Amino acid sequence: MSLRHLLDIRSLTREQLLSLLNDSKKFVEVSRRSIKKVPALRGKTVINLFLEASTRTRASFEIAGKRLSADTINLTASGSSVQKGEGLIDTAKTLEAMAPDILVIRHPASGAPHILAERIPKTSIVNAGDGMHEHPTQALLDCLSLMERLNRTAEELSGLTVAIVGDIRHSRVARSNMWAHRLLGNSVRLVGPSTLVPDEFAGSQYFPGGVTIHHDLAEGIEGADVVMVLRMQMERQHESFVPSLDEYSRYYGLSVAKLERFAPDAVVLHPGPANRGIEINGALLYDKRSLVSQQVEFGVAVRMAVLFSLATGKGALPVEPQSVEGHTQ
Ligand code: CP
Asked: Could you tell me the distance, in angstroms and rounded to a whole number, from the CA of residue 322 to the centre of ligand 1?
């Protein structure tokens, strides 16, 4: 069960996924106490290396490390020697010499965390989002949000229809969620224009037997249990994938009215940051069916569970919540 790195969801077993989700739930409880700090990772060092913009992931990894009493430092491209042209491997080798236990990395290049796992083997690597590849902790917090809203355990989070809407071509969030829902036993619909939902996603290399593609929003979300709306990722679009954002919004943007009409019982996820008025209407973002705030809250718990698991090598917290309680300072 024990994990050396968290590089992606794709290479996890179902048992590892369930274990991380169940552990995360225990850390939600820790994060809701008035005193949120436990000494579990005292003496451990976590470096957060964010070479691409982030608010949620970066802040929550820092908070997670601090709540576990780890020594946590944060580096971004701006203000580090990356700005002077130092490359990824040399940056990582430099940081490795300071003996961190865990290096959390966000990078614009797909595969960057995997390269680090090979090149600095003494340090556990966590992928905090790499290019268009994966964002494993995002998928974990999305699943944890569904567990809480649907009042299900990780083991029970199956049999759902999950519609993922929007810029799937460029989305690491979609890829990690597709793998997670495959392991959990849910069916996934990919919804969007053909330019943003390439047909190869239905191919067996991505999601054997489990993905359907829909170019019509109403058809794609009708009767879904979960509608996950994705951000239009302008920073990764080096050509025009839609005729205009206005037109995209008209055909694929989700609003309260469209949700009520086609999927009235669905809950809505959005990884953030949202382009209000493009992929999602501002009123829906904080509607009662939206789990956006909960996703952010649970991001901290998920990242605590991941850091704990990697730093202790246990792969799981003690089973009883009282055992966590016992660590409280
Ligand atoms: N969802 C997500 O990764 O958001 P940030 O880019 O703000 O971290």
From this structure: 32
